[in-house]
Each structure stands twice: as structure tokens, then as C-alpha cells.
Amino acid sequence: MPGALEAALARRSWSKVTEEAPTHDELLELVAAAGRVADHSSLRPWRLIELRGDDRDRLGRAINKAQGDKGVSSKTMRAPLLIAVVASYRKSHKVPRWEQEAVASGVAHMLSLLLDEAGWGVIWRTGHYTRAKAVAKAHGLKKNEELLGWLYVGGKPPRSRPERRKAIDARGLVSRMP
Question: How many domains does the chain have?
Fold first, then answer.
């Protein structure tokens, strides 16, 4: 099994996936691991919503409604499994809202790494409609919650040529205090 460094270096976004997806039980195992991200005061200020089948149609209608369109957006049909990432803010004197959102984002990113390493194609999608009332209502969000986006998950299609990822030059991104 590859280590965390190898998994992070191999990670890429999969905009096109096949119709296979992890089962609910497989997803639960990965979410249990992803939930181990750094979480000040162990607030768990996040939750995930699993969307499959008709749930994707309901979301597609909500997205179109948010954009003033009728019908069902085809965007939600790009993967067999969508995982809505929700920041679920908790009252805390120690942990500010921004830090709680960072935890929810960390869970989403960790889950995307774990899904990728398990052989699934994943892309994190967002959009201006993540904050739309119709979309929030479709997800059953509470007043203390915000939708951060969705992980679109499916099988990795065969590649006709190897992926060439551009290396990141960390020297330009890490500095010392002035």
C-alpha cells in the first residue's frame, strides 16, 4: 500500500468517471478515516450527504431553480455518487468559524485522497449555487450550515496515454518570516 506522500503526489482530479462507485459501507470506512483530520476541540463541524440515483435529479432541479431555469441540470449526472460537503458550525469560544470551515474542507480533501488511493476517480466541484437557497433546502441544511461543494465519485476510466502532472516548485511557496 502506498504511503501518504505517494498518494498525495499521485492525486489528480477526474472530470470524467465511469458508472461504478464505492458502496455505502466502503464509503463509511473511508469517511471514518477522513474524519481524523486536525479538529480543534473535536467539534466535528462537518457532515457529508451521500447522493445517488434520484437524489442527483432532485439536486439537478434545485440547481436549475437557483439559476432561474426549469428542468433538471445535467451537471449532477456526471458521476454516480456525489458527496455533499457541509460545514456544520458549532458554538465555541475557542474555535472560530473560519477554523471550523477549514476542518470541513480538510475532511473533504482527505476523503478525496482516500477515495483516489482506493481506486476511485474524484473531483471536488463547487459553484455559485452552493450558497443558493433552493440548493440548501434540497440538502436539508440548517441555519448553522453551509454547503462547500460536492465530491463527484466514480470509476476511473482507462487512460489512452499516461498522465503528465506538472511538478510543484515548493521553493516559491515556502518562505521564512520577514
Answer: 1
Q: Which 8-state DSSP code applies to residue 154?
A: E
Domain coverage including residue 140: 23-156
Q: What letter represents residue 118's amino acid?
A: A
| Whole-number Å distance between alpha carbons of 53 and 43 | 31
- Map residue 39 onto helix, strand or coil: coil
Decide which of 166 and 116 is more confident. 116
* 115 part of a folded domain: yes
Question: Regarding predicted confidence, which is higher, 132 or 164?
Answer: 132
Q: What is the CB neighbour count within 10 angstroms for residue 40? A: 14
pLDDT for position 143: 96
The single-letter DSSP state of residue 18 is B
Amino acid letter, 41 = S
